[in-house]
Amino acid sequence: MKRRNTPTKEAVLEVLTTTGKAMSQDAIEQEIDININRATIYRVLNRFCDDGVLHKIVAEDGKQYFASYNKVGEQEIAKNHLHFKCLICETIECLHAEVNFSIPKAYIVQDVNCVLTGTCKNCS
Amino acid sequence: MKRRNTPTKEAVLEVLTTTGKAMSQDAIEQEIDININRATIYRVLNRFCDDGVLHKIVAEDGKQYFASYNKVGEQEIAKNHLHFKCLICETIECLHAEVNFSIPKAYIVQDVNCVLTGTCKNCS
DNA sequence: ATAATATTGCAACATAATCGCAATAAATTA
DNA sequence: TAATTTATTGCGATTATGTTGCAATATTAT
Question: For a FRET experiment, which of A48, A86, B32, B35 has its CA 20 to 30 Å from that of A120?
Fold first, then answer.
């Protein structure tokens, strides 16, 4: 399905690439000047995920957070990376660090979803 | 607050220690013969978590899964361990494997929530 | 047996996320 | 530029997960 450029998409993507953090739908909505419907934001976010522009993280609060692979002024983040949720500033950050583990080789790993919780470098 | 023994608690704990898997509230409810209210199951599960008997995992579906630290006939599982969600049999398993990562020391890690997705040893 | 209070069931509530459908708007074509 | 196609949006309704208040019940201790 062909994509079209809309103010909504641009606004959503702009917020995420600027902060470089993983944000929830309502946090994104608050950061955008224009009014965008909740359902629309979710659809835009999910479409970006399908297209490999964004990725989705589910935190221990059960909510979905979305983050760009490209933060402005930084290198692109790897597909398999860690996430850090700070309990102080309540942001979720993508870390340039791989997750390592050793499990029996009978297991076939397709995806890694790893969220660390604690105090981030700005708040410690 | 003192705890009391009830049929509900026993039934819930029995299911989880027998399977050794992480289960959601509705999965637990289905496995129990007697009828137990949804809210009650959640309260029992959360109380067990508070008491360190169970632990809670949030999977990428945003749902909570609960697992015992002690599976019958197996060694106790460590606090910081991996979880594996099989896409075939749709179970969540606690793995006897630690998560390793290296991040800047400014970060203070309090908790690790790591769920691998793929095909488990029984389904591969 | 009685009293104290932990536990339960029920209903209501809160929140996250999705979906159908009609209206709108972007991109393509004439 | 105008017309056409169809991707996108907004709205409302819906689903699902999880929690909470409150009265009724059941467990434990006296």
Answer: A48
Domain extent for A101: 7-118
In a domain, A44, yes or no: yes
On whether residue B2 sits in a domain, the answer given is no
Å from A123 to nearest chain B CA?
A: 9
Residue A62's nearest CA partner among B60, B66, B90 is B60
For residue B81, the model assigns a pLDDT of: 87
The DSSP call for residue B91 is: -
Neighboring chain A residues of B58 at a CB cutoff of 8 Å: 58-62
Tokens of B59: 């999977």
Residue B93 confidence (pLDDT): 94
For chain A, percent of residues with pLDDT exceeding 70: 100
Domain count for chain A, please give it. Answer: 1
Task: List the one residue out of A95, A28, A62 whose CA is nearest residue B109.
Answer: A95
DSSP E strands in chain A: the ranges are 21-22, 54-58, 64-68, 82-86, 92-95, 108-119
User: Which of A58, A109, A115 faces B118 most closely, judged by CB atoms?
Assistant: A109
Six-digit token pair at B62?
């945003």
Global pTM reads 0.93
A15 part of a folded domain: yes
